[in-house]
Prior knowledge:
The complex is a heterodimer of chains A (529) and B (437).
Chain A: E1 2-6, E2 9-13, H1 19-25, E3 49-52, E4 59-60, E5 71-73, H2 77-92, H3 108-116, E6 136-137, E7 142-144, H4 154-162, E8 168-171, E9 178-181, H5 194-198, E10 204-206, E11 219-224, E12 233-239, E13 242-248, H6 261-264, E14 279-282, E15 285-288, H7 291-304, E16 309-311, H8 318-331, E17 335-339, E18 347-349, E19 355-357, H9 365-370, E20 375-376, H10 378-386, E21 392-394, H11 406-411, E22 417-421, E23 433-436, E24 445-448, E25 453-457, H12 470-480, H13 491-501, H14 510-515, E26 519-520
Parallel strand pairs in A: 1-5, 16-17, 16-21, 17-20, 21-22, 22-23
Antiparallel strand pairs in A: 1-2, 3-4, 3-5, 6-7, 7-10, 8-9, 11-12, 12-13, 14-15, 14-23, 18-19, 24-25, 25-26
Helix pairs in contact in A: 2-3, 7-12, 8-12, 8-13
Chain B: H1 17-22, H2 27-34, H3 37-47, H4 59-64, E1 75-80, H5 89-96, H6 98-112, E2 116-121, H7 126-141, E3 157-162, H8 172-179, E4 203-207, H9 208-220, H10 222-226, E5 229-230, E6 233-234, E7 236-243, E8 249-254, H11 259-266, E9 276-280, E10 289-290, H12 300-305, E11 314-319, H13 324-338, H14 344-361, H15 369-379, H16 389-413
Parallel strand pairs in B: 1-2, 1-4, 2-3, 7-11
Antiparallel strand pairs in B: 5-6, 7-8, 9-10, 9-11
Helix pairs in contact in B: 2-6, 2-9, 3-6, 5-6, 6-9, 13-14, 13-16, 14-15, 14-16, 15-16
Amino acid sequence: MVTVTIDGNQVQVAEGTNLIEAAGKVGIEVPTYCYHPGLTVVGQCRICFVEVEGMPRLVTACSTPVRDGMVVLTASERVKEARAAVMEFLLENHPLDCPVCDQAGECYLQDYSVEHGLDTTHMVDERRTYPGFERRLIGPHVVQNQNRCIHCTRCIRFTEEIAETADLTMKSRGNHSYIDTYDGTPLVNPWSACVADVCPVGALTTKEFRFRARVWHLEDTDSVCPGCSIGCNIRIGHFKGVVYRFVPRANAEVNGWWMCDHGRFLAESLNAREIEQPAALRNGEPQPIGWQQAVAELANLLHANRNARVVASANLSNEALYLAKRVFVDQLGLELLVPVDAGEPRAIKNGRREWVSSIDAHPNSTGARLMGLPLGDAAALESFVKSSTGPVIVLDAHAHPWLDSESAAKALARQEIVVFARSRTALTQRATLLLPSASWIETAGTYTSSTGRVQLAERGLYPRAGARAQWEVLALLGAALGAGTDPAATPRALFETMAAEVPAFAGMTFRRLSVEPGIPVLEEVSNVG
Amino acid sequence: MEPILLRARGEENSRSISTYLKLGGYSAMKRALISSPADVIEEVKKSGLRGRGGAGFPTGVKWGFIPKDSPKPKYLICNADESEPGTFKDREIIHVDPHMLIEGMIIASYAIAANVAYIYIRGEFVREAQYLEQAIAEAYKKRYLGRNILKTGYDLDIYVHRGAGAYICGEETALLESLEGKRGLPRLKPPFPAVVGAFGCPTIVNNVETLACVPHIIERGADWFAGIGRPRNTGPKLFCVSGHVDRPGVYELPLGVTFREIIEEHCGGMRGGRKLKAFIPGGSSAPPLPAELVDTGADFDSVAAAGSMLGSGGLIVMDETVDMVWALENLMKFYAHESCGQCTPCREGSDWALDVLRRIRRGHGRPEDMETLLRIARFASQGMTICPLGDAFCGPIEGFIKHFGHEFEAAIAKASPLPAKKLPVLPVRSGRGAFGI
């Protein structure tokens, strides 16, 4: 550890820390464009100049490691002057088309222009343009506007160092150099949209989010990606009940600063809502009913049929799975299976640049396993369903792709089925009881990732229409069936009860989860490397 | 002064190894290989040899920066990327006496314990690269290169690597990147190449002329070398004179000779008897000096004291007919074209300065333009950029305006305002108007 003084604040930091990180420790933001904590340092934007006592010239904070006893000034007159000059250089050729730029509102050129720039420019000549490069789809998801580019090369370094695909490159030289895909092939890699995240300006944006919302309207909810078992930390941007985008949230232990395109573009799917009211089949026709009646009917069904089977879901939160276990397995002694779909292999680099890979397509299969619930693949699920003699309760119609197949519909053609769902599937048509479930953002919950971390996804929206989260329904059901669950439980209370009971979660609290970057459960669960 | 570096100029077959041996070549190498590397470095330090590429850093001191205990291989790189406008001395050495360079490289490699050396030669020097290849082949045949040189147990291989035509690759770290097969972008320093250079190993990059001096220092002694020129500015120097003189060309003269002597005695005076207006003492990156300073000594320290730099020794002479705004615009065209585009002040500044100068030249200058140019020059130099290319174009801006500001003022005073740009008239759509109203 070395001690440095930054603007009069003493701070102890590890050796090798750069001045940007050290200043961040005492709450001083040094402006940066090309510097990104997850990428190599190139020191080429020159905005992060600071003054170090004893050095004749200003130094770039990104490329200067701390030395013991260093005295750093981040806001001296010299520094301010230099930053204003660099801002002027950067804006000299920038089109200043903020009113039609998607980055506006989260643009570092805007922010630092206000904070460090001049209020005018000495530039009177024509600005540089790149005809033909103003709105160019360079890959399936990324749109390039080279006129706005400030040549920080973050995107290039992302494709070289994180994606390891080196799709992007700088072509030509000097003031006319521009970002292009290597050999003119499209930017196709599983993480391609991250280049829009790292782009500090509006040069790279995603096709999916482009022009859909102004970012200052968006409300952000800290969450976890539902796309696979890795559990990338994300921020969900939503406005007036509509989800617009997922962006990665930094977590060095899980996803670094990144997320994959598959997960990112699940955002739109959160808006799907086809089933709005609980419905019961009356004379072959679904009739809307109230929730109280729905829970009562479900309780009756379970009372009458001790041979019912439960298909749970690895997409459910730890709390919901805990309640499912308590109500169905412990109280009623029913058979329960958590279907697990291997899905496509996914991987992401964590903050130490190690690959983290998925084990399946669900955000919480590890949680189900730690809870002691039986897991099964498609074949196990099929035989579990086909061999059932009584009603089948499907806690999540989207738990496994097989559930949406002809074969599932045929297998369940004769039984009474209770289905929790958001959209119509093969099963929802003839469900005895159809219960609208909440979407990912409509419930708070904890999920245990394949990296062995329990992470909290917060609620950003209230469930739309008559939807309820599964844990809420299960708590009511548990109370009705005498399982002793609190009908007014909250995820927080449920988590704490669960933490006291399930050894894997011992000692964890909701409060800790909301401030820490996830809490590791067991070393051997982690799937790094 | 007796020619030293250009001693073979005029000899028949001057490039061949037989001529070089006839003139006493490769004896310094033999002497160096039987003494210790430390002694060689000491001798070069004592000679006061300063780098001839432009920065004038003491060569022996530079060699001493190679970490002694590093287990990594070391590399010597000869910078033959001579791209500075107004400079053509390295080409002359390769044309006249490539073996002198090779002998210098063998001695330098031995001193820093390198077993591989590269000559990074500018891509446009096609013939010169061939001459070097020929000379290297001859040296291999004589066993001056390769395994176990002259049975001393020292191995050295020299490779010629041709650049692809970028000025920036003459900057030593950009050269290393280019040599490694990457885009030629200067690296952040520290670490310096002596510690982390080519392929991550300790590396020394020396100019052709610097290395060509080395055999003579070893052969004739540091004291002899230090006796040429002036204190702290020792040795012979090649001056490449271009511009409005009667006999432009490469002249070998001791450091410290005055520019007046170079122009008037050696180059036969100004062409057509016209008056000297200004001269650029050390390649286009050096700020120009006005005619009054023509008695300045042509050595590193005197030129620096006069407000410019000796740089590569590329002396560009301008007579009274030269329009200094044009001259600066011409230089700026070069720098804007050659800026690598990596760091902001240089990438944006060089092109911006060119835009301003172009506008002044087209008769649309503005009173605040000189201030803008000086502002660019102030904030794209002095450590604001990664490499010295920022200083290379800012020095001339400052120098031209300092000494010839009145010409810029005159050009601006005559200027008419830029005609307002005609905006295209958009067709009015019939039917629904804007915003669907």
